[in-house]
Amino acid sequence: DTAVSQTPKYLVTQMGNDKSIKCEQNLGHDTMYWYKQDSKKFLKIMFSYNNKELIINETVPNRFSPKSPDKAHLNLHINSLELGDSAVYFCASSRDIPRFSGANVLTFGAGSRLTVL
Amino acid sequence: GENVEQHPSTLSVQEGDSAVIKCTYSDSASNYFPWYKQELGKRPQLIIDIRSNVGEKKDQRIAVTLNKTAKHFSLHITETQPEDSAVYFCAAVFTGGGNKLTFGTGTQLKVEL
């Protein structure tokens, strides 16, 4: 079974639309993340949740709204899509928030490629 | 703010040669430094990591070194093979603001036959 699964894998949409990407992990991890990877391959953190609580909220437009109904799910909703939102969005999870102990390893999903036309 | 610089951005080596990728970080309190490998069209995956109480760690053909004083760490791949071709990311945990794992800008490694 896939450890971190995200859907859809590909998403092509028009500017101005609203879309969602879903993520689920079956690893029993407490922390989940959304990362954005642009065309230059830069991996930038957007949000992090620990036990359904938002702990990292980077400077992203408020058109992006994460939602964690339980600690196994972290969905990403994007309103009023813009051309610059085109990227691959990776969901990830880790046993705990990154710290000195061994809870740091991130397991990534396969990515969702969003193309805004 | 937190910053991880990574060099080079692209690296081409002949099969069997060694490859070295270097990173520097800004937060002197950072204590955990992983390296991730991302093959074309795939997800990033952890290949090796090092904690701040260790200077060097090795796993078969891969090794990582850490210089806390200079705030830099490096990935060394020996006897490179074509399957080592990928994008490699260094990362560091920044202890402020939720213990955030911040990635470097990536290095595209190409191993040529």
Which runs of chain A of at least 5 residues are low in confidence (pLDDT < 50)?
Answer: none
DSSP helix fraction of chain A: under 10%
Task: Please compute the radius of gyration of chain A using only Cα atoms.
Answer: 14 Å
Indicate the proportion of strand residues of chain A.
Answer: over 45%
- Based on CA inertia axes, which overall geometry of chain A fits? globular
In total, how many beta strands of chain B? 11
Rounded to the nearest angstrom, the distance between the terminal CA atoms of chain A is 34 Å
| Strand proportion of chain B | over 45%
Total of DSSP H or I helical runs spanning 4+ residues of chain A: 0
User: Distance N terminus to C terminus of chain B?
Assistant: 41 Å
Q: Helical proportion of chain B?
A: under 10%
Whole-number average pLDDT of chain A? 90
The chain pair with the largest interface is:
A-B, 21 and 26 residues
Task: List unreliable stretches of 5+ residues of chain B.
Answer: none
* SSE ordering of chain A: EEEEEEEEEEE
Structural class of chain A: mainly beta
The coarse silhouette of chain B is globular
Give the helices and strands of chain B as they follow along the chain: EEEEEEEEEEE
Integer average pLDDT of chain B: 92
Oligomer state equals heterodimer
State the secondary-structure class of chain B: mainly beta
